[in-house]
Write a structure and sequence with these properties.
Blueprint lengths: L5 E4 L3 E6 L12 E6 L1 H11 L4 E8 L2 H12 L2 E2 L3 E4 L6 E4 L9 E4 L16 H6 L2 E5 L8 H12 L5 E4 L10 H14 L2 E5 H8 L4 H10 L4 E5 L5 E4 L4 E4 L12 H15 L3 H16 L11 H10 L4
Parallel strand pairs: 1-4, 1-9, 2-7, 4-5, 4-6, 9-10, 10-11, 11-12
Antiparallel strand pairs: 2-3, 7-8, 12-13, 13-14
């Protein structure tokens, strides 16, 4: 693959998507299997856009773990740092699909997910420090030893651009909201970019308005704050500039994975050195495309697909 451009670290799993839309899990008859997990999806999204990407995660010693490695390789993502836990099982996730905005998830990550057993010993800190872009997630902070490993990886970056922390807040993974906020702030002190949806930035700041919440996030340490606003588009802010882009008008099938597509495209634009407005527009369109498709990793768009959508020039 040559030298890596993007390294992500965090959650992985196998997603099982219902092939019957608009019904409960009790009524679903068949499922489609796909690669999943936010950090994993972001690596796939970046690879689909031509970036040399790798993910640091951990799977179980089981058939689903084998599937994760094969799927990643098929997407062109380096699997060198996908390690194996000898006792825990690879997580699976079921979802229901009720368009346009209700997609409940059922996580099977007990007693513990292998990716939460990542330790500092699993990390190549020199490679992390050298990567042009490094991405961590809030899920990785929700338990030990992953929390210590995530913070050690961020420390290895030493404030280097581009160090991105995705707030990636799943309340069911945390003992309390205050714990989540505390550790999010620790990550923000070490990151140069923070990204999250409206609920996630409210978790981190106590503020829901994107403009004031983004300003509060910048006070925590990052130089760029990005707020994903779903049907209201996206907003980004630095100390000097702020940019807002409208939502892309497209039929929604399944919103799961749209934020990860956004993340992969954000990586691409930041690495390319594009103006913030162009980067945000690309990321917004990437998320819209995945929201119009069933799966997450398998649905990540190419640059041609994103640009074709943007050329339509239709916005909400």
């Amino acid at each position: 693959m040559g030298s890596l451009e993007v390294i992500t670290m965090g959650r992985v799993g196998v997603d099982l998507y219902p092939e019957q839309i608009g019904v409960t899990l009790a009524e679903v008859r068949t499922f489609a299997k796909s690669l999943g997990g936010s950090a994993t999806n972001v690596a796939v999204a970046a690879a689909r856009l031509g970036r040399r990407a790798a993910v640091i995660t951990k799977v179980g010693q089981d058939g689903f773990g084998d599937y994760v490695r094969r799927a990643l390789a098929g997407f062109g993502v380096d699997t060198h740092w996908v390690s194996t836990d000898p006792t825990l099982r690879t997580p699976i996730v079921f979802c229901e699909i009720h368009p346009p905005d209700h997609f409940p998830l059922l996580f099977y990550r007990e007693p513990k997910a292998p990716d939460m057993n990542l330790t500092t010993a699993d990390l190549d800190l020199a490679a992390i420090a050298d990567a042009p872009l490094f991405w961590t997630t809030g899920t990785g902070l929700s338990d030990e030893p992953s929390r210590a490993a995530t913070l050690a990886a961020l420390d290895a970056r030493n404030g280097r651009e581009i160090t991105i922390h995705d707030l990636d807040h799943r309340p069911t993974f945390w003992r309390s909201g205050e714990d989540a906020r505390r550790w999010a702030r620790e990550a923000l002190r070490r990151a140069t970019v923070v990204v999250g949806n409206t609920d996630e930035v409210e978790m981190a700041t106590g503020l829901r308005d994107p403009r004031t919440a983004a300003a509060a996030l910048l006070e925590g340490g990052p130089r760029l704050a990005v707020v994903k606003r779903g049907g209201d588009g996206a907003y980004a802010r630095t100390a000097r500039d702020e940019v807002s882009v409208p939502a892309v008008e497209i039929p929604v099938l399944n919103g799961l994975g749209a934020g990860d597509a956004f993340g992969g495209a954000l990586c691409h634009g930041l690495l390319a050195g594009w103006p913030l407005a162009r980067t945000l527009g690309l990321a917004n369109a990437a998320g819209a495309i995945v929201a119009s498709r069933l799966a997450a990793a398998d649905a990540m768009p190419t640059l041609d697909e994103i640009e074709a959508l943007l050329m339509r020039g239709v916005s909400a």
